[in-house]
Amino acid sequence: MDLGLFYALTGAAIAVFCGGGGSSIGIGFVGQSANGVLSEDPDKFGNMLLLVALPGTQGLYGLVCGFIVLGMVSNTAVSSASGLAILAACLPVAISGLFSGIHQGKVCAAGIGVAAKQPQATMRALIYGGLVETYAILGLVVTIFFLNAIKL
C-alpha cells in the first residue's frame, strides 16, 4: 500500500471512529436516562425514542464521509500530498461528530427528564438537541466541500 492511500484511509477511519464514538457515548447518556423513566412508565417509549436516537446521527455522518473517501481512492493512485489532504478534510466531521455526539447526548438526557414530567414538551426538548446537531451538520458539509476540492 502506498503512503498516500494509507493517509486517505486513515482520514476515513478517523471520521468513522470519531463520529461513531461520539454517537455511542451520547446515546449511552440519553439511553440510561430513558431506561430509568421506562422502568417507571413503559408507555413513554414513543416520547423517548427520538431523543434517544438523535445523537446517533454523528456516526452516520462519519460513515458517509468514510464511504465518500473510499469512492475517491478506489482504483486510483493517491499521492502522499493528496492522501494528507484527504486526511485533513476528514477532520471537521470527525471532531465535530465526536464532541457534538457527546454533548447532544447530555442535552437529550436532560430532555428525557422534561419528557417524563411534561410529555407535551417533548418536542421542545428535541429542539434543544437539534441545536447541537447543527454543528455536526456543519462539520459534515465542510468535510464534503473539502473532499470535493481535492484533485487526485
What is the strand and helix layout of this fold?
Blueprint: H1 3-40, H2 45-53, H3 57-73, H4 80-117, H5 122-149
Short summary:
The chain is an all-alpha fold and 152 residues long. It has helices spanning 3-40, 45-53, 57-73, 80-117, 122-149.
Descriptive account of the structure:
With 152 residues, the protein is mainly alpha-helical. The chain has a single domain (3-149), classed as lithium bound rotor ring of v- atpase (Four Helix Bundle (Hemerythrin (Met), subunit A)), CATH 1.20.120. The protein has five helices and no strands. It has helices at 3-40, 45-53, 57-73, 80-117, 122-149. The longest helix has 38 residues, at 3-40. The protein is elongated. The chain starts with a helix and ends with a helix. The model has no long low-confidence stretch (mean pLDDT 96).
Query: What percentage of amino acids are in beta strands?
Result: under 5%
What is the CATH topology classification name?
Answer: Four Helix Bundle (Hemerythrin (Met), subunit A)
Count of DSSP strands:
0
Mind telling me the C-alpha Rg? 18 Å
Proportion in helices: over 70%
- Helix tally equals 5
What count of structural domains?
1
- Give the ordered list of helices and strands: HHHHH
Low-confidence stretches: none
Determine the mean pLDDT.
96
At CATH level 2, the architecture is Up-down Bundle
CATH superfamily: lithium bound rotor ring of v- atpase
First-last Cα distance: 16 Å
Which structural class best describes the helix and strand composition? mainly alpha
- What does the overall shape look like? elongated
Largest sheet, if any?
none
CATH class: Mainly Alpha
